[in-house]
Amino acid sequence: MIRYLSLIPAFAVLLLVSCGPDVPDSDDGISLPGDAVLAEGEEVIAAEVNGTVIRHSDVLREAAAQGVIAQGGTLATGDPSYQRVLDELIDQRLLALEARRLGLRDTPQARRRIAMAEERILGNVLLESTIAEAVTDERVQRVFEEQSELSRPATEVRARHILVSSREEADEIRRLIEAGADFAELAVRYSLDTATRLEGGDLGYFTRQGVLPAFAEVAFDTPAGQVSEPFETASGWHLLKVENLRTAEGRTLDQMRPGIVRFLTFQEIETLITRLEEEADIRRREPVEPGVLRADGDPVPPADAPEETGDDAPEDGE
Hints:
The chain is of the alpha+beta class. It is built from nine helices and eight strands.
């Protein structure tokens, strides 16, 4: 199902529900001054170009498409990046108006490309609308609660240990601890574990899954502040002192929100496209031979076809 995501531009895939509605455009795709007024107030106009307008929201949308800001983000009008993007949109508007004046919009090639661009835009608008309706704060909260229930925080133990080579050594060290000797000082003096010896045998916090089963069994069965009986592993004989037990803190809603929104977004896109494919009448044609068609859709003459010249062209009457 991951193949569906290749159909969607990154800004649509990563869309967050904070995106607001767009200002209506005129039918020809270039906004007129009268179109810049919303039902609830006036849309901020960034520039007027030969009787057309470029809105503040147009600048933000282009800035997001260029990766200058995040989707739904803001950009101060005095920011150099804002002015650069606005200058680019003004130049783009001037080129588009000149192309219209020259009648280039009505050429077959332009109409095909405009139609393809319209498909992409309409598809993204549909995705944005679908995601905005489905990925709500209530749904994000529900998924967070479900995930929190499934992955309850684990209990962690903080412990120190002393590693020696024999049971006799372990028993002797334990007698010293019972007599009042400090566990950490004994670890520095006697432990064979070079990774923890200089830290007084401190292992830090760990879960049952983070250590060997035999070690975990002793650690989680020993009360806090107590020293275990000597026990053996493949490394040698151990004494373990449990310093503290705690329940690991679970991730907060704010920490999990981006991942939940991304998951729900992918899910909605996949569901929508799957439904449309199942309901559609799709008939794939056999692929054409490479090189038969140019990018503009016109046929390419065979390589061995004679090239017509003025001398070779048939004369009238022949």
